[in-house]
Amino acid sequence: MRVDLFDFDLPEDRIALRPAEPRDAARMLVVRPGGAPFEDRVVRDLPDLLRPGDVLVLNDTKVIPSRLYGMRVREDTAARVEIMLHKREGGDRWRAFARPAKKLHVGDRIRFGEASESTACELVRLDAEVEAKGEGGDVTLHFSFAGPFLDEAIARLGELPLPPYIAGKRPTDEKDRADYQTVYARDEGAVAAPTAGLHFTDDLFRRLDERGITRRFVTLHVGAGTFLPVKADDTAQHRMHAEWGTVSAATAQALNEARARGGRIVAVGTTSLRLLESAARDDGTIAPFSGDTDIFITPGYQFRAVDVLMTNFHLPRSTLFMLVSAFAGLDTMRAAYAHAIETGYRFYSYGDASLLFRGE
Q: Which of 97, 131, 137, 143 makes an SS bond possible with 101, Cβ 3.0 to 4.6 Å?
């Protein structure tokens, strides 16, 4: 399909720079199939919009401070580089986006942080070797630490990777360390938050429990590729970056049993949806899954696992707007986004939510 079909104009003042407070006070646009009118609700209405027996599927990945600033060291020359980690390749290896990538060659060493005489260990300094270079600034880095020691060094030296449409307008601060993390995050490895999950609070979970709406967790470590624009003119020419995810056997069984009883699978976020669809069998049942997924969902895709999707509002020409258009219909989503812009909904990571019921 032509990528320009997924374009729309978004005023700058519709981009949220801070989340709603409390989290579940964010607005939520309800989109149903069959030409039903849009409903302007708030996230805390979610228990009333679902049915007892439905199951929420949430991504429990935890964002790490994955933006690193370092110096490329080569013989007698040095150059500053910015690194955005986006996919772990092993205990001591990460794939990353480098800027400016043209300053890096295979074999170059990058030094992050400085040595300090006041610390007993050298986790305030971290070295990495450029092991490989790919397209679009993609590099593979081999670090001088491994496992939890590398994780600790990254946590000490890294910066929280707010999306570029926020980071370009204000600096990251301490408040973002809590705001840009779900209340249920536990499995470290993401470089971007599963933003639909940012709307949940302990009180909202309590009310969902009382309504008989259960929840299950999966893990998909969101990569920085989620922010990359689609540069191709046709969707068939776009290549998705792979992300690692897992669906446990217990979760797969619970979801299959819930659906057999008539419950609906409600994916909280496009990351949960992509992982569930990657794990789904042809008959719609969900199998245990562990590995990479680069699933690219565009209109015409036949959904097998997910019945309802809760998600934020996405960028023009993005793979995520293509996904929601596949789920609810392109014409429906173009109309929904036009309504959201006209009525003041807030867009992107810190913005408002939508609740989409799958179109036929």
A: 137
